[in-house]
Sequence to fold (393 residues):
Amino acid sequence: MRILHIISNMRPDSGGPQEAVRMMLRSAPDGCDSEVLTLDDPQAGYLQAAPFTVHALGGDCKGAYSAKLVPWLRANRNRYDGVVLHGMWEYLSLAVLRTVAGHVPYLVFAHGMLDPYFKRASRIKHMKKWLYWLPVQYWVLRHALRVVFTTEAERGLAAQSFWLHRWNAAVIGLGADAPSADVAECREAFYALCPALRDKQYLLFLGRLDPKKGCDLLIEAFARVALLQPDVQLVMAGPDSAGWQSKLQRMAERAGIAERVHWPGMLKGERKWGAFAGCEAFVLPSHQENFGIAVVEALACGKPVLITQPINIAEDLAADGCALVDDDTLEGVISLLTQWTGLSPAEREAMSARALQSATTRYDMRKNTSALVELLADARAAQTSALAEPRKA
Fold:
């Protein structure tokens, strides 16, 4: 079984879809050979050591378009038993519609891009999307074998974005890798980067420093409850994708908590797992998350999570007893931190045990990737069988 994953780029700082692709490649079942097609610069450093086959075509307009894409797909589509298109609203969708539809079974992994949050966040952008929806995106989804959502919540929300829609849906979750190195070594790698945090209690935010993630709410809420826990620090780890870090740092300075907030930048490998291992809890006050890979990574490390309602796995984690959940407002985030400070050590320890159990039970990446592959394998087998049947006279 050979599968082609199509995504605009594989930059490490791009976010969830790119990490989801990496996890799918690492978790592919035996006998499945997966490759990646991107519009990255072929010379990009982050591709040189990639442990998978990647076809980087290069692109214009920040990777949004490549004249090589359609010819490449036409020439190579029959080498694959199935295609997975990651994301929407890009030239990639049009290329798949023109070259893959009707020839090779394909899935569209929505990655939250049909969430009505974006409709509310910018009416102008939503109106522009309608111009692409009617002639292209609607048909890409309609002709797909399945449009894949990671939760039932995401599936339900997707139907609210455009009144004109029709697709065959599948709900297949993601997961998280477990730390591959010794936990003690991971801690040391993180403390080498942030020596001030050694032997300190801290809450961890790990993600893009972006308005969608609610970083400003977290800074302000932490300032409000900091007096309740004078020894607790806050780590704001992640790439400054929106050029927002300086504004957030000024907020911390004005609130008098600058010395208690740490900014290590994007964490990878041992440093990332060390940050998880050393934290008291993981915090993500996001305004929209179709899944939240970092949330599940925290669970896999046995860490309770403090999260907001718009994170689509929040309800499940609250039911599992490993998460505190509230609204994505200042009052809601203050409530999360206040609830956490009010828990006894025994209650926190019980949440930690349930966190690891939830990660193991719900978010088995190998199982979820196998379900994705099986969809394509069954469709390809049916297509092959139909072609082999003799035509009736």
User: Anything to note?
Assistant: The mean pLDDT is 91. The two ends are 33 Å apart (CA to CA). The chain has 16 helices and 13 strands.
